[in-house]
């Protein structure tokens, strides 16, 4: 089940980068051939739910792996599943699986142990180890085979992944990154252009820490909302934060504090 093959050694980006990916540190890690027969019948299962499968015991033996499951929304049956072996130990699976608006691509994040070095380093918060790497898997939803993997700018979580159509009718996929102080960026991928970065939203763009971003968009697809926080807010009002309202057309940012 799935494409059980490690990425090519020293895989290099080839025409995938954009100005936005370069300035925000997201890079292409490896590419694959996701073509092949359908893993499930869309005509027989017109409404499905897709969920990530966290690291657990491998039924085939060997290294525990993670993957996806496709569930019929009516019968509640698992109609297809896949596990993915990228040749590195998977240590964490952030919550959430995302899907492109047209249902062509699935997105799940995970953290890999680059070297088999045992326990996490002392003092590393949120069980994040600097010897790890953050990886986003992009999966062909029909074949359940890997199309590509992306690597984050540091070790943290890819999560809160949502597909939407913007005000100009363009498909976009929101990918949030990070979950504590210094979080972000939030990326908008173009699923119809090899999942390249159409826009990156960084701390420098917002001029506020992003933390755990929880991004979402308004019904028109013109405004994106991203959680932010600042130390003075917490000193004045315990456990408060704010929202950045980002105009995706103009790039303008409005900050709503104390929410």
Protein topology:
Elements: H1 19-24, E1 27-31, E2 48-53, E3 66-72, E4 78-84, E5 89-92, E6 97-99, E7 105-113, E8 132-140, E9 146-151, E10 158-165, E11 171-177, E12 186-190, E13 196-201, H2 203-206, E14 216-217, E15 223-228, H3 231-236, E16 242-247, E17 253-256
Antiparallel strand pairs: 1-9, 2-3, 3-4, 5-7, 6-7, 7-8, 8-9, 10-11, 11-12, 12-13, 14-15, 15-16, 16-17
Structure description:
- It is a single chain.
- This protein has 3 helices and 17 strands.
- Helices cover 6% and strands 39% of the residues.
- By secondary structure, it is mainly β.
- The strands form 4 sheets. Strands 1, 5, 6, 7, 8 and 9 form a 6-stranded antiparallel beta sheet that branches. A 4-stranded antiparallel beta sheet has the order 10-11-12-13. Strands 14-15-16-17 form a 4-stranded antiparallel beta sheet, with no helix packed on it.
- The protein has helices at residues 19-24, 203-206, 231-236; strands at residues 27-31, 48-53, 66-72, 78-84, 89-92, 97-99, 105-113, 132-140, 146-151, 158-165, 171-177, 186-190, 196-201, 216-217, 223-228, 242-247, 253-256.
Q: Which spans have pLDDT < 50 for at least 5 consecutive residues?
A: 1-7, 120-125
Distance between the termini: 45 Å
Structural class: mainly beta
The average pLDDT value, as a whole number, equals 83
| Rounded Rg | 19 Å
Strand % is 35-45%
